[in-house]
Specification:
Elements: E1 3-9, E2 12-18, H1 24-31, E3 50-53, E4 56-59, H2 65-68, E5 72-74, H3 93-100, H4 110-123, H5 129-135, H6 147-160
Helix pairs in contact: 3-6
Length: 161
């Protein structure tokens, strides 16, 4: 039995028809066409599906869509200065830093890493390397070896100061 819900995604109200068991990750991707939220494991192990829910990083494969109703959801598409509405506002400082510091290779983990880093920098604007590594523990990368990811987060933190 489906139910209509309204999700506040990237600053816009979006309606979705969902079953009570529908996971937020799938609703974002399949109904709202926000494919930057990647699904890598379906078991909350990889972090590729990380989004911000009321400003905190959560793995959207662990959240029911109905649980997110009435809450503020931010996806990787919503980080751009234009709020993900397709304008030419440029990149978010973390997106720019990942580009400049080569914090991505295949790019699959990148949206989740960036969303986790947004949460980290909101509470710790000047994190140490150890704090960054601890924050991204739940986000797996099979390509980079993490050093450039840490450097990118440090660069974004420095740009924000």
């Amino acid at each position: 039995m489906k139910r209509s819900i309204i999700l506040n995604v990237n600053g816009a109200a979006r309606t979705a028809e969902v079953e009570p068991r529908a996971l937020l990750a799938y609703v974002l991707r399949d109904q709202l066409d926000l494919t930057g939220t990647h699904i890598g494991c379906d078991t909350s192990q990889c972090g590729a599906c990380t989004v911000l829910l009321d400003g905190r990083a959560v793995k959207s494969c662990t959240v029911l869509a109905v649980q997110a109703e009435g809450r503020k959801i931010t996806t990787i598409e919503g980080l751009a200065p234009d709020g993900g509405r397709g304008g030419r506002g440029g990149l978010h400082p973390l997106q720019q830093a990942f580009w400049e510091k080569h914090g991505l290779q295949c790019g699959f983990c990148t949206p989740g890493m960036i969303m986790t880093a947004v949460d980290l920098l909101s509470s710790k604007p000047n994190p140490t390397d150890a704090e960054i590594r601890h924050a991204i523990e739940g986000n797996l990368c099979r390509c980079t070896g993490y050093q450039n990811i840490v450097a990118a987060i440090q660069a974004a933190a420095a740009a924000g100061r």
